[in-house]
Amino acid sequence: MNGDRFDLVVRGLTVRYGPILAVRDVSFEVRAGEVVALLGANGAGKSTTLGAVMGLVRPVGGAIRCGPHDLRTMATEDIVRLGVGLVPERRRLFTRLTVAENLRLGARAGRDGSDLAAQLDTVFELFPVLQRRYRSPAGTLSGGEQQMLAIARALMGRPRILLLDEPSLGLAPRVVEELFGLLATLRSQGVTLLLVEQNVGAALELADRGYVLRSGEIVLSGSAGELLGSPEVVGAYLGGGGGPGPLEGMAGSTG
Ligand code: ATP
Fold first, then answer.
1. In angstroms, rounded to a whole number, what is the distance separating the alpha carbons of residues 147 and 151?
2. Which of 13, 46, 213 gets mutated to test ligand 1 (max ligand atoms within 8 A of its CB)?
3. Helices (H), 63-209
4. φ and ψ at 26, to 5 degrees?
5. Which of 21, 44, 50, 186 would you call most buried, defined as having the most Cβ atoms within 10 angstroms of its Cβ?
6. Which neighbouring-strand residues pair with 86?
7. Rounded CA gap, 54 and 93, in Å?
8. Phi/psi at 100 (nearest 5 deg)?
9. What pTM value is reported for the model?
10. Are 129 and 145 in contact (CB under 8 A)?
């Protein structure tokens, strides 16, 4: 079946918040099986782009398609049911509900036909800690464990593509390493990932390709290797300037 290919294709995406043009004429794609990084400073438009894909913010222009489906005309719950999962920024867990309840909600929101027990086994294999903390309120988990739960909750819906909004935000370096190890496992299992990150080095180590957003526009794109070697990315993010910094000084060289 042709519809089996579930490439995400975004063309000319434009989003406004009143007078603010948050995303302008953004085009990118994530092919099935790829890991694609969406990079950029605070306020560059990364979360807005993910929100538009999920139907959470409505664009004023452009096209968003997944396989044969036109996401721009679909409600968020239908987009999730289609197989597009989101791990939102700052996780958005139900902190008073248990780990088990959070996972069940993820399963209910996602694609149906999945056997809950089998799906739980799959996520417990990836996240043994969640099995140990199954009956604990999500709010009692550590920051790293909560991030794992947020990813696990999205995986419970058996997404065909998973969108992650800054999963490493606020986590200790050791936990970040663990998180990226886990994303590498998902990648090796063939899960398609669109990864928004400020941890540019780690994101590009994992990704096949990447795009850099600045002030709502894509200013650079290429393979992860090309971006890691690009003077703009090195200068703004990976240079000796004491860690990640905004891409404000970047030359506007569109890929
Ligand atoms: P961050 O990492 O800080 O979330 P981002 O790259 O995800 O940054 P967005 O959150 O998409 O950027 O924001 C893009 C622009 O849109 C910014 O100028 C931001 O201030 C503005 N913006 C975002 N959400 C809203 C909103 N609900 N109302 C008005 N303006 C908004």
1. 6
2. 46
3. 76-82, 99-109, 116-126, 128-132, 143-156, 173-188, 200-206
4. -90, 130
5. 44
6. 163
7. 17
8. -60, -45
9. 0.88
10. yes
